[in-house]
Structures are given as C-alpha cells and as structure tokens.
Amino acid sequence: MKVQTYIPGHSANATEFMSKRTVGSHGQFFAPYLQSGLKVLDCGCGPGSITLGIAERVSPADVVGVDFGQSQITNATAAAASVGYEHVTFQVADCCELPFADGSFDRVFSHALLEHLSNPIKALTEMHRVLKPGGIIGVCSPDWGGFVLSPPSPELSKAVSAYTSLQNDKGGDVEAGRKLGVHLAKAGFVRIEMAARYECYPSLEFIGEYLALQLEREGDATSARALRDWSGRADGLFAQAWISAVGFKAE
C-alpha cells in the first residue's frame, strides 16, 4: 500500500506461512455468507489459498483477489490455474483505492490485512463503496493483546515487545482485532457481529522463524535469537488470538 509497510514481507517463509491458510482454517466465520452465484472480492489475498476456497463455494460466480504485492499475485494466479479455476482472477491493487465501480460485489472478504494499515477505515470505506446495497463484508485480524506464548521469559517478552513496536512504528496496529467493529461502523456498515477464537501453532519452529526473520531484517539480532531459542523448546506454546467481524451494507 502507499501509506504503510507490510511487515512480514513476501519472503519464501512468509509466503509459505500464508499459503497454509484456507477458508476452513481461517475464513470459517464468513462461510455461512458464501453461496453459489455471489460475486466476491478478497482484499489482501496474498498467495490466494483462502481466495480459492471462496471461489469453490460461490462458483460459478466471479471472484477477484487483490494484493499490493506482485509476487503474491503471480503465486495466486498460478495456484488458480493449477486447479483450473477460470472464474477467479487476481490483480495488483491498493485496497485504499480499489479499481472497481460502486456496487460491484455481493461480498467482500479481508483476512490479516487491516492490522498492517495506517488508515484501516479508509480501506473499509472503499470496501463499503464496492459492495452492492445489502452486501456483506467479513474481516479478520489478530490481536496481540490476547497472545499467549509459553514458557515465559524476560528475553521472550522483550522479543515480543520488539515485534509489536516494529509493526506499530511502521504504521500498523497490533491490537487491530478488538477495533474491527468500531472501524466497520465508522466506514458505514451496520448489523455488525464480532467473534474471537484462538489458533495454536503446531510448529513453534515455523512461527518462531517467521517472526525472527522480520526482526532480523530490521537489525534486531538479539530479539531474533531469543525467538529462535524459544521456538526450539519441546514444552512451548504459541496461541494467537483472532478477532473476526461481519458487517452489512444498508439496502
């Protein structure tokens, strides 16, 4: 995007991390609102793994995935081609300036995007604009205020604080999850419903390396080392809090 930095980047590690997500694992809260024949926009689609699950549910209607990273669009396009989904297209776009006419979509979905935006309400206002009257949006973001990492240690606490400071300093908001309902209301949505769940990562090594690489890229080798040391423990836990929200555009 033009006004913020996507902290995870688009490294092979980050892309692999995102590609493990599916509608079943990370978009289930929105599944009841996806039926055949509904045209859907996925904002911040990444490598397209969730987008393809959406496409399967709304087929034969068109699904469009947008992301600001060209590498992600390339990966997503290849993934769609590999399964023969011709009703899915991907394109580079800024979610704060969507290249679609008013009322173009029946549904809008966005997962793990708003926490990286310096102006999430602007993006949500754009998503509201491109929805048809009566259309529905589903958004989901983590909230670092609810994370549980075990076993605790001063070194691990400092490393987590370093990461949260990094994301916030770059224009994001690590507590975006709890604010989703407020953001949706300010963007014009009504009948807003929120929910929460926890995701426990089965591989501490994977999530530890994912976070460590981002800190290391910013020159914080100490925090990166603390995360890697922690992720090698057999008795550890990483439980991530996810907040989801569904909102309606008035008829």
Descriptive overview:
The protein has 251 residues and is α/β, with parallel strands linked by helices. It has a domain at 12-144 and 172-200 and 240-248: Vaccinia Virus protein VP39 (Rossmann fold), CATH 3.40.50.150. 38% of the residues lie in helices and 24% in strands. It has nine helices and eight strands. The chain has helices at 12-19, 23-26, 49-58, 70-83, 120-130, 154-169, 180-186, 204-217, 221-231, and strands spanning 40-43, 63-67, 88-92, 105-111, 131-142, 148-150, 190-200, 237-248. Strands 1, 2, 3, 4, 5, 6, 7 and 8 form an eight-stranded mixed sheet that branches. Helix 4 (70-83) links the parallel strand 2 (63-67) and strand 3 (88-92). Helix 6 (154-169) crosses helix 9 (221-231). The protein is globular, with a radius of gyration of 18 Å. It starts with 11 loop residues before the first helix and ends with a strand. The mean pLDDT is 93.
Low-confidence stretches: none
**Computed CA radius of gyration, to the nearest angstrom:** 18 Å
Question: How does the major sheet shape up?
Answer: 8 strands, mixed
Amount of beta strand: 15-25%
CATH third-level topology of the domain at 12-144 and 172-200 and 240-248:
Rossmann fold
pLDDT averaged residue by residue? 93
- The helix tally amounts to 9
Under the CATH scheme, which class of the domain at 12-144 and 172-200 and 240-248?
A: Alpha Beta
Superfamily (CATH H level) name of the domain at 12-144 and 172-200 and 240-248: Vaccinia Virus protein VP39
Cα shape? globular
- Per CATH, the architecture of the domain at 12-144 and 172-200 and 240-248 is 3-Layer(aba) Sandwich
Structural class: alpha/beta
> How helical, in percent, are the residues?
25-40%
End-to-end distance: 30 Å
Q: How many individual β-strands?
A: 8
